[in-house]
Each structure stands twice: as C-alpha cells, then as structure tokens.
Amino acid sequence: MMNRMMIMMMVMIMIMMVIMIMVIYYIKDINDHNTDNTTDEDDDDDKDDRVDDDDDDVDMMMIIMIMKKMMLMSTMMMVEEKRKR
C-alpha cells in the first residue's frame, strides 16, 4: 500500500511541475506578443530583458512554493497511512 501511495504522489508531483512550466511559458509568450507592437525598439528591448529576468525569479519562486506544498501534502498522506495501521 505504501509503495503504491508513494508512486502516486511522485506522479502527481511530476504532473504538477509539467503543468506549471507549460503555464509559465504560455504567459511569457502572451507578454512577448503584447510588447511586439511598440515603436521605440531599443528602449523597449532593454526593459523587456529586465522584466523577463524578474519574471524568471518570480516563476522560480512559484515553482519552489508549489514543490514545498506538494512535499507537505505527501508527508501528511504518509503520516495518515501510518496512523490507519
């Protein structure tokens, strides 16, 4: 039973990570398309680079937060399984 639960939790974590990465890249694509319509190219390029760096930091923070939550959930599930026995 525990082995099955562990495998299920690992699969869930992998799926959550893939979904988060897809969502992040989708949002970045939308932002890139929105900024393409501007006229001053040089200034906007510099600003876009800075904003992208900030976005990367924020995205990494989000991924780390979600991983922490998933780890907490998995430990809670394990504790509950041990209590049931």
Walk me through the structure.
The chain has 85 residues and is mainly α. The protein has a domain at 57-85. It contains 2 helices and no strands. Helix 1 packs antiparallel against helix 2 (41-84). The radius of gyration is 19 Å and the shape is elongated. The model has no long low-confidence stretch (mean pLDDT 72).
Task: Describe how the helices and strands are arranged.
Blueprint: H1 2-35, H2 41-84
Helix pairs in contact: 1-2
Main traits of this protein?
85 residues; mainly alpha; 2 helices; elongated; transmembrane helix; transmembrane; membrane
Give the helix level as a range of percent. Answer: over 70%
Radius of gyration: 19 Å
Instruction: Give helix and strand order, one letter per element, not per position.
Output: HH
Give the N-terminus to C-terminus distance in angstroms.
11 Å
Q: How does the major sheet shape up?
A: none
Identify the overall geometry. elongated
Region (Disordered): 36-55
Biased composition (Acidic residues): 38-55
Transmembrane segments: 7-27
Keywords: Membrane, Transmembrane, Transmembrane helix
